[in-house]
Specification:
It is built from four helices and no strands. The protein is mainly alpha-helical. The longest helix is centred in the last third of the chain and has 20 residues.
Amino acid sequence: LVRKGTAFRTAHEIVGKLVAYATKKGKTFAKLSLKDYKEFSPLFDEDVYKITAQSSISARNTVGGTAPQQVRRQLSRAKKAIRIRRATKQISPSDTQGEGEKGQ
């Protein structure tokens, strides 16, 4: 919907209502008809059936977004910040154990 010109906040609200509808009907998104989708927005088209969790995650390719490239970038920045803080004795290695830093 956002790619078709709907404001993110509005699209989020529409999808929230769609989730509630699908849940009430006991259907997955894949089992909803195009007519069902269009009751929530006329912008829905056959391409709605191509949406996957991966395509949704990848679509958020902005700073701080969920796209794999952005997640790798943020992990890299966090690891660098930890190395700098350790080097300047602001934190000890044990302060980050158990948070994905073990053995790295």
